[in-house]
Amino acid sequence: MPLTPGSKLGPYEILAPLGSGGMGEVYRAKDSRLGRDVAVKVLPAAFSADEDRLRRFEQEARAAGLLNHPNILAIHDIGTQDGAPYVVSELLEGETLRGRLAGAALPPRRAIEYAIAIAQGLAAAHEKGIVHRDLKPENVFVTADGRVKILDFGLAKLTRQEDGSQTNLPTATAGTEPGVVLGTLGYMAPEQVRGRPADARSDIFAFGAILYEMLAGRRAFHGDTAADTMSAILREEPVELSTTGRAIAPALDRIVRHCLEKSPEQRFQSARDLAFDLESLTGVSAPSLAPGPDPGARRRFPARAGLLLGALVLLAGAAVAGARFFGQRQPEAPRFRQLTFRRGAVRNAFFAGDPSTVVYAAAWEGNAPEIFMSRVGVPESSVVKIPGAFEIEAARGGELAILLAGSRGDMLARVPVTGGSARPIAEDVEEAHWSADGGSFAAVSLASGRAVLEYPIGRKVYDTGGFISSPRISPDGERVAFLDRPILGDDRGSVAVVDRTGQKTSLTPQFASTNGLAWHPSGREIWFGATEVGTHTAVHAVSLAGKRRVLLRTPDRLGVRDISPDGSLLVSSGRTRGVVVFHGPGQPTDRDLSWLDYSVVRDLSSDGRMLLLEEGGEGGGDNYGVYLRPTDGSSATRLGQGRAMDLSRDGRWALTIPPASSDRLVLLPTGAGQPRTLPPAGLQYIGAGWLPDGKRVLAGGSRPGEPIRLYLQDLEGGAPRPVGPSSVGGPPAISPDGKQFAARDGEGRIRIYPIDGNAPPRDLSGFERQDELAHWGKDAGLYVIAPGRPAKVFRVDITTGRRELWKELDLPDAAGVGRFQVFYVSDDLTSWVYGYRQVLSDLYLVEGLR
């Protein structure tokens, strides 16, 4: 029976009914302990005998109870009385989004505001591993003061647990049983209609249907019968928003369409990225949603422009646009001063004592990196002679922190700014920074395959299976800001800070590419280089509260290097290109087979006729592009999106990893067929390669808290089985018969391991520390590439250890080229392909940014 006013549920006194639904009855109640009004949802005792309904009710409470976000209904308590379970939540005053819509469209600005709030709430849930699975206007609440809350996680599915959590929340089984459909018609994703498992991308589809309805004033999918509605979801596209007669920005229309893709792989892959795209339409970060002109899609540059430095089109930030909008006097445009004038690549750079003196590392005209000093207004830079130094990490009080190439890894050292003898500080350092008072260092190392941030050195404050880049100590010495990159070897990432106790906070969503950061002297903002798509990074600023703004855009790739006490910015500016070079049988010269702006070769077919390419730049799109290109030079064919890994021996499948969800492998057909996504196996993948039988793959990855290692995975199912060393350095080389592989262990030794794990590893001779495994030939030779100028490919006999030079790879234009990235050989050893990255950049001083 319904509860009457005055009834008691534990410490809660029922005041009045609020409503009822399939999951129970809702009442307004008074919490006698805290004296506040709350909402109590009660499942009647008669229903508690229904195990499925009871399980879903308890799951709703526990799932939502895991979440703490301003855009998700807060759960206060859960209990049972007289056999009736109940859950206590915050009491909301207002109406559901269904009531707010009332069959009419919302103003686009209001729709975007609501959409950002919903997307941010979903992102928080998805990051906890919780999928809603029944998102609809009835489950979105708009409070009287305009706040947006997501309700009813009764169909939520916990897809993973937080590290160290002890929740007993089960995974919902109903959504994974064939033919069982959960959700609400009209908002269900195609995979839900088919009774297939739902994941975060299913929520994104429902979100797209809601956003469409807010903009169009009618449902995206609706038929006369349930079957008609389901058919529309599976086969039809919603009516174009342009036909509504309302002024819908093309960028907003594209976001809606991207959400409503029939295939989950084609939608946004994370709600965080979706929220970021929506925020870009407003020019500011939520929750401060000031109206403003629509800057268009992410691929378009904003319309706020000023011309500087001849060919560079420099776009001023939000402050300039705001001044124009409100009729105020436009601030002076930023001033650029070029500091370097040679051909090559600038690496790190820092102010040395005053804003007119800069020290930097660069590799000019194809030479090895060196340390230089420059003065503003003087075009020539002087070399700071430090034997073995290749990178600068900071400048403090007349001294430099540098990296030296050592016999046991890179060494952090300090040396006078004028050069001389270096004083060692720590070994095995990847990147580092020096505190403003000169008293301590923050350092990044790769310990057992995991990136570790120490601050001060010796005290771990953060580690990850990805990578930690550009650590920078705050002016007060209390925090370290860094670029948190989820994939080792990939520059996508977000800005994060960690304090001395190890408390880490992410300040931004994930960007497609990141390039350096620095603290503003005030300590209130972090300036960083990043882009939402491609590689042309702009300069952004983010506060410790997460509020972001764009400071500077150019058509080039901007990298933040340092900020002086007076606010002058040191940036690198240039272009980056991925190059693929092929040599076929009988060819007199090598041939450039790059396709778009950032081509990376991932495999050469066994017969030498096809290249598997990955496009990671502007042309590749948000989530990279996977291409197949014939080596005869004819046009490439796009297979799909993702990080390309390997071609199967028969050439029928390309093995890929989605950048936004590196916990799974995807097989893309090279001809007719449909993509195949392998079930998550509990790993974060960094690479994978086919075994010759085409039924198994050897994958590199890590489980939470564990080092990167190799796993054998059967495509037909089953848990991945660890093989080989407990930590691995670099990709392995698989034997032609698929029974063995060669890999470098954590101590740097190249050894041969059995695939079945039934024999001990075998030591090999003839290898050097810098060798990178490239190919296991049918001639019993392991082919390795030794970086240098020219790069040399050696054949090492696996039986005798005999090492002989096989090929030399030199370049007519080596400026800006680091080490060769990859090298692949055909089975008959008559064709080969290699790839490298070319970065051409200069250093600039930028004054006048605010």
Please, could you describe this protein's structure?
- With 850 residues, the chain is mainly beta.
- Among the domains are: 1-91, Phosphorylase Kinase, domain 1, CATH 3.30.200; 95-300, Orthogonal Bundle (Transferase(Phosphotransferase), domain 1); 577-840, TolB, C-terminal domain (Neuraminidase, 6 Propeller), CATH 2.120.10.
- Helices cover 12% and strands 39% of the residues.
- The strands form 15 sheets. It has a 6-stranded antiparallel sheet with strand order 1-2-3-4-6-5. Strands 14, 35, 36, 37, 58 and 59 form a 6-stranded antiparallel sheet that branches.
- Strand 38 and strand 39 (610-615) form a beta hairpin.
- Helix 4 (108-127) packs antiparallel against helix 6, helix 4 runs antiparallel to helix 9 and helix 6 packs across helix 8.
- The longest helix has 20 residues, at 108-127.
Short structural description:
The chain has 850 residues and is mainly β. It has 10 helices and 59 strands.
The shape, in one word, is globular
Number of helices: 10
Spatial gap, N to C terminus: 64 Å
- CATH topology description of the domain at 577-840: Neuraminidase
Structural class: mainly beta
Which strand order spans the largest sheet, edge to edge or round the barrel? 1-2-3-4-6-5
Question: For the report, how would you describe the main beta sheet?
Answer: 6 strands, antiparallel
Question: Which architecture name of the domain at 577-840 does CATH use?
Answer: 6 Propeller
According to DSSP, the number of beta strands is: 59
CATH superfamily of the domain at 577-840: TolB, C-terminal domain
Please state the average pLDDT score. Answer: 84
The amount of beta strand, in percent, is: 35-45%
Give the proportion of residues in helices.
Answer: 10-25%
Radius of gyration in whole Å, from Cα? 29 Å
